[in-house]
Amino acid sequence: MNQSAAPAASNKVQALILTGFGINCEEEMAAAYRLAGADATIVHLNQVLHGHVSIHDYDVLNFPGGFSFGDDLGSGVVLANKLRYRQNPNGRTLLDDLREFIANGKFVLGICNGFQVLVKLGLLPNLGGDFNPEVTLTHNASSRYEDRWVRLKVNSATRTPFLKGIDSLEVPVRHGEGRLVIPDAATRKRILAEGLNCLTYCDADGCEVTQYPHNPNGADLNCAGLTDTAGQVFGLMPHPEAYLTLYNHPDWARRKRANPGIPEEGDGLRMFQNIVEHIEQQRHAAVLLETNQYSS
Which is a Gene Ontology cellular component entry for this protein (predicted)? Predict the structure, then answer.
């Protein structure tokens, strides 16, 4: 685990990945970013909370999956409260820093337990812009832990660069509390109108479905993922970092025999490639703008 105070000097996109307190998918997420061409730094959350690591030194902040604080009071609840109320030596909370981080145009990704944390923190969907919780994630309708592969359909209206050019994908889910609940009709209407329900569970033909097990948890709107209104904050229950290569899939051998030319990249890798490419393009555009301003 890299405990350095700042990322090494590099022109690559910098991804910060938090771990600790029961988070356990940090290595897979780091592998995803490295395969996508970024530098990935894993730090214990305490390093950030104590002011030894600044999220502002990075381009994209990541909350991986796991079971933070054992999920004893509900998935993500304790960790979200720690981020909302725990002050660093400068008297700031991580939520204060997250507000600034997002205002500066940077990106946040939360997967599974990380998605739950973003919802409990109010970063998703953040319709009111005040970082207050507006939806929740609760126990699966099946009343059981679900560990299975699912297919997801991408909402064509989504604004997030994480999903650019993706129509559908297959990834695994591993959760006991993944059912999105939208508490009122007004919130539901706005989520739909703005395309914030960026991922929905679907069948093999790409048709949205409500039935179990295609929808493994009974989520409202069959929703597997949300973004904020700007598309900078993205959270999802399934695990794209668990499908980086064809050989992660349990059916890879049959698929390879049936189609020897099948791509060897897993469906989940494209999300990480997308955000790395987007940040690189942003940087290039900023350099061109500065060069033009200087030359004029």
Answer: cytoplasm
Structure tokens at 176: 């006991």
Interacting residues of 250 by C-beta distance below 8 A, sequence separation 6+: 149
CB atoms within 10 A of CB 152: 27
Region label for 135, one of left (φ > 0), alpha (ψ between -120 and 50) or beta (otherwise): beta
**Is residue 24's pLDDT more than 80?**
yes
Looking up tokens 């209104």 gives: 229
pLDDT number for residue 73? 44
Is 1 part of any domain? no
The 10s digit of each residue's pLDDT in 204-230 is 999 999 999 999 999 999 999 999 999
> Which tokens go with 228?
């904020």
Within a domain: residue 23?
yes
**What's the CA gap between 240 and 262, in Å, rounded?**
19
Q: The domain spanning residue 204 has which CATH number?
A: 3.40.50.880
Residue 7 belongs to a domain: no
The pair of three-digit structure tokens given for residue 161, joined into one six-digit string: 């660069």
Is residue 68 within 8 Å of residue 78, measured between CB atoms? yes
**Cβ contact 47:98 at 8 Å:** no
Q: Is 2's pLDDT higher than 70? A: no
Question: Which percentage of the chain shows pLDDT scores above 70?
Answer: 95
CA distance 204 to 226: 22
Contact 98, 109 (CB under 8 A): no
The set of catalytic residues is 112, 239, 241
Range of the domain at 55: 14-295
Domains contained in the chain, number: 1
